Amino acid sequence: MxxxxxxxxxxxxxxxxxxxxxxxxxxxxxxxxxxxxKSKVDQLEKEAGNRKIFGSDVLLDxxxxxxxxxxxxxxxxxxxxxxxxxxxLIPILNQNDLIIDGGNxxxxxxxxxxxxxxxxxxxxxxxxxxxxxxxxxxxxxFMSGGVESAYERxxxxxxxxxxxxxxxxxxxxxxxxxxxxxxxxxxxGIEYALMQVISESYDLLKRGLGLNNDRxxxxxNEWNKKQLKSFLIEISAEIxxxxxxxxxxxxxxxxxxxxxxxxxxxxxxQDAMEIQIPVPTIDAAVSMRDISAYKSExxxxxxxLYGPEYKIEEExxxxxxxxxNSLYFAVITIYAQGMAMLKTASVxxxxxLNLKDIAxxxxxxCIIRAAVLEDICSAFEKNPDLVNILVDSFLxxxxxxxxxxxxxxxxxxVECGIPVPGLASSLAYFDSYRSGWLPANLVQAQRDYxxxxxxxxxxxxGIFHTQWNHI
Length: 471
Description:
The chain is α/β, with parallel strands linked by helices. The protein contains 20 helices and ten strands. It folds into three domains: about 10-175, Rossmann fold (3-Layer(aba) Sandwich), CATH 3.40.50.720; about 185-435, N-(1-d-carboxylethyl)-l-norvaline Dehydrogenase, domain 2 (Orthogonal Bundle); about 440-470, Up-down Bundle (Single alpha-helices involved in coiled-coils or other helix-helix interfaces), CATH 1.20.5. Helices cover about 55% and strands about 10% of the residues. The longest helix is centred in the C-terminal third of the chain and has 33 residues, at about 315-350.
């Protein structure tokens, strides 16, 4: 083992880490893997076959397997585990070695780690990775941020392992500092919102129309051949076909209606508020995961509170087409919110992001890959300074042509008591964004009335305060 000098090392041999090691090795790279759990090291070595993969459960032995200057990637849970590993690595690394955090770390933690490690002349990259376990094994999307020269060191490896779309690699250098982890955070916020509106379409068809799982599979499968073609629609269609271990039953009907979350959607909402960018559909998705966790309270409330019956009386086929168009409208506005957030964050945090490049690397490998991303790429190709994809000549028409269907769907959902906060917030975002006047003047007046917070006028420059006539 003393003669082995691997091109990259992986710390954390869970499903994602192990699959990424195998992916790198499939493309001819020599890889070392480390985990404190020896059984995971043994499993990796068992799967390695003839690939150039070497494992260890001793950190120093693992480090000695790497060629100098070393490149070490971590795929471990965000937060303290990352800091703990970095603390262990610092004494046994050399100057100009490289640490790569491939997990879902908060971007502020990435900034802190980058600064601290630079003082020790150790390079650090924050790389967001999307694609799940299958993507890690056969080609994910990599969102890379940090010092560009450090990225260049591992660029050939990432390009080889990444997903490919039309011969293009789903990886690029995004910007300095925490750019990679920030883009991944917004990616996950978009993912939350997309999953929410898809679940609402399912609710409308299941509780509203009373469709069974076989019919739902056919509908989503057809949707995946047209404008809604995407990974999330594709897997939704497959989910409806999965049989349970009980004879004659479907697994989807046995799954508890409580959605879990790891926090990245919440982080997106939090930072959107910090930089004052509206992302209402992402906010709604986070809130709906929260309310889903109140299962026992919801069951008790259902015995006390009542509303309309869930049954929708519309003709099935026309209603299904309306749901399809409504869902596509919502998808466009969700990407609009995410891209607008990235545009502002790029200036706020000095990332210098290229939104076309982000859309391009999201087209393959990642969870939010979708056909509409080709149109988003085209929009930023035509106008790199586009403020919002809703004002792009093509995408604006796509939304305008479907708004009547969404308005009808929301009206029907309200009349039937089916909650559609994701779809409704998408329409509210659209209506607010297209409105040349909003009632914020009353909000400003109220703030000045009770707190002397001042206001501005439409007919005169300056800041004003009024002694309001108290009644």
